Hints:
2 copies of one chain form a homodimer.
Chain A lengths: L8 H12 L6 E2 L2 H8 L3 H13 L3 E4 L5 E4 L8 H7 L2 H5 L23 H18 L12 H11 L1 E2 L5
Antiparallel strand pairs in A: 1-4, 2-3
Helix pairs in contact in A: 1-3, 2-3, 4-6
Amino acid sequence: xxxxxxxxxxxxxxxxxxxxxxxxxxxxxxxxxxxxxxxxxxxxxxxxxxxxxxxxxxxxxxxxxxxxxxxxxxxxxxxxxxxxxxxxxxxxxxxxxxxxxxxxxxxxxxxxxxxxxxxxxxxxxxxxxxxxxxxxxxxxxxxxxxxxxxxxxxxxxxxxxxxx
Amino acid sequence: xxxxxxxxxxxxxxxxxxxxxxxxxxxxxxxxxxxxxxxxxxxxxxxxxxxxxxxxxxxxxxxxxxxxxxxxxxxxxxxxxxxxxxxxxxxxxxxxxxxxxxxxxxxxxxxxxxxxxxxxxxxxxxxxxxxxxxxxxxxxxxxxxxxxxxxxxxxxxxxxxxxx
Lengths: 164, 164
Ligand code: FES
Ligand code: FES
């Protein structure tokens, strides 16, 4: 796992995206507001949001009217993409080529084909992501209810001025 | 994830079990020897082996002739059991009931049914484990080759004296 990965990072990331999914195209939400909405430590949530931005799940605009919004329509962003962005692969399984170490090390020849252990772990990861890739952000209800979140958002979003 | 969980813990655990699978019923292998075999830091490997022991995948005997062996026949121990023992569930997903926090918190009523996010994550975990539960330690070749490992073991196992 990447250093500093939070165990609850996936939960925070998906819940945050479900709120961002309610924004209109000209709206964005500052990270600080998201932290208030979920009553979370802003620095930790900021780290999660940055991972999402690096992965292209959200985009951020800086400045007075800045904030986060989804990088695509909710129906086009799968839960799998959000989960990958939080460093899932590293958390699931890391192969350090242990078979190449010590007195019974596999030969470089033998190491040309993938290790059987890594292969079965990779198959499991694919099954995991297959479930998550079949669900988009538009498929999930907003926990706590859409109406409450929309009302709160109305008071806290930043609206980007339309330029003519 | 449990504190101190190693990202490469799964790799080490499965490879170690594949070596223990070669032991005869009256043999056991000290953790220190396993660390030598894989050229790994003994303290870190010891932690992984202790997790396996807590989960009932391996058993250990202490004392001069002590060491680890599998808790069951290799064909009866699935990769899924080994992977679970390393703290997989905590690494995959942790729900901290974020929906119950902040100004738009779900009501206790709403929280009686599982969160949709947790539900889809659980479904993915089940698909993941289904793949790993279909593979036993007996299904996997010994990386580096069985012959080399068996030869090395002959020189390093502890044999338990048969009592009559
Ligand atoms: S060498 Fe890494 S999983 Fe086998
Ligand atoms: S409240 Fe934990 S996943 Fe939704």
